[in-house]
Amino acid sequence: MPAIECRNLSKYYGDVRGIEDVSFAVEDGEVFGFLGPNGAGKTTAIRTLLGFLSPTSGGATLLGRDATDPVESRRARERIGYLPGDPGLDRDRTAAAFLDHQAALRGESSRDELVGRFGLDESRRIGDLSRGNRQKVALVAAFMHHPDLLLLDEPTSGLDPLLQEEFAALVRERVEDGASVLLSSHVLGEVAALCDRVGVLREGHLVAVESVSDLRSRGGKQIRVRVAEEVDRADFEVRGIMNLRVGETVSFTWTGEYDALIDLLSRYTVLDLDVVDAPLEEAFMTFYDGDVPGPTGSGSGGTSGPDAAGSGAVDSGGEGR
Questions:
Q1: For domain 4-216, which CATH number applies: 3.40.50.300, 3.90.1100.10, 3.30.70.20, 3.10.20.30?
Q2: Which listed CATH number (3.40.50, 3.30.70, 3.10.450, 1.10.1760) goes with 220-320?
Q3: Cα–Cα distances in Å, from 296 out to 60, 186, 187, 281, 290?
Q4: Is the CB of residue 77 less than 8 Å from the CB of residue 94?
Q5: Where are the alpha helices (DSSP H) in 221-289?
Q6: Distance between first and last Cα of the chain
Q7: Euclidean distance between CA atoms 143 and 54, whole angstroms
Q8: Can you tell me whether residue 134 is helix, strand or coil?
Q9: Does position 19 have pLDDT exceeding 60, yes or no?
């Protein structure tokens, strides 16, 4: 039985679409990534799955329990760790008091270990903590009762690179112990490092569910080639080439067939050739046709309404989803 099964789930805010007809499953022991820019519908989907929002139509199960039934949903949440994208922590409490309250609700079998692991000072008032330290409090709360299922919304927002690595190690350990994970992120490297499969959301619709390797293959290969002759730029302005740069070396992203690439390069005497996988960002952009909101995209795509706040950067730590 899947840890999560989502069937044609839709959520509208009046006439504004949050998500529409979303279907996917997270298998036991799987890390499933929700990928998309701010406003794509990731947070709306998670909050609807958890019963915080009532679906407009469709259904879902969490750990085999009906997510749309209040009693069943509550029982499922006892075995779930949830990290919201913007944790609503009581700023007047100390971190210790907040975690004491969470422990009384769900348990705290690994609290001390996690507090030490993330270097959290529990004695400080939450309102006095930095964004990163507040994120540590939320992470400890989500993981400390050893949940069977984790729903993590932008989990590394505010964390420094070393703590991001510690978070990734923690996720892998929990999965080895049998947990399943739904990880919503627009940090593409995080998704590539942790996830088995990804679902790509665009304007409230799930446009693809793929393995990370299949997703990466969409981005093609990055080619750097140095040739003996003077390069005619027109030779390289062909179908299958993106991001062309011509100088002492010719560099581009190749998305076509390899036979066509060999034919192209055979016109020159190749002195040096380097071929590597294109960044995951380029694969991601194939779903958006360059129309990703924010400074890294050229357009204004995405949804409006409660799920569309934030800067919209594809790889930022913005608050909107």
A1: 3.40.50.300
A2: 3.30.70
A3: 34, 12, 13, 10, 9
A4: no
A5: 233-236, 258-265, 280-285
A6: 29
A7: 26
A8: helix
A9: yes
**Phi–psi pair at 79, nearest 5 degrees:** -110, 15
Q: How far apart are the C-alpha atoms of 253 and 24, rounded to whole Å? A: 31
| φ, ψ (nearest 5 deg) of residue 257 | -80, 145
Quick: pLDDT tens for 110-166: 999 999 999 999 999 999 999 999 999 999 999 999 999 999 999 998 899 899 999
The amino acid occupying position 268 is Y
Collapsed DSSP state (helix, strand, coil) of residue 210: strand
DSSP β-bridge partners for residue 9: 22
Q: What is the pLDDT of residues 52-108, one digit of tens each?
A: 999 999 999 999 999 999 999 999 999 999 999 888 888 999 999 999 999 998 888
> Where along the chain do the CATH 3.40.50.300 domains lie?
4-216
Amino acid at position 163, single letter? L
Burial of 54 (0-12, 13-18, 19+ CB in 10 A): exposed
| Single pTM value for the model | 0.75
Residue 279's closest CA among 206, 187, 208?
Answer: 187
Round to whole Å and give the CA distance between 159 and 130. 10
Instruction: Give how far the C-alpha of residue 56 lies from the chain's centroid of Cα atoms, to the nearest Å.
Output: 24
Q: Torsions phi, psi of 82, nearest 5? A: -120, 130
Of 314 and 121, the structure prediction assigns the larger pLDDT to 121
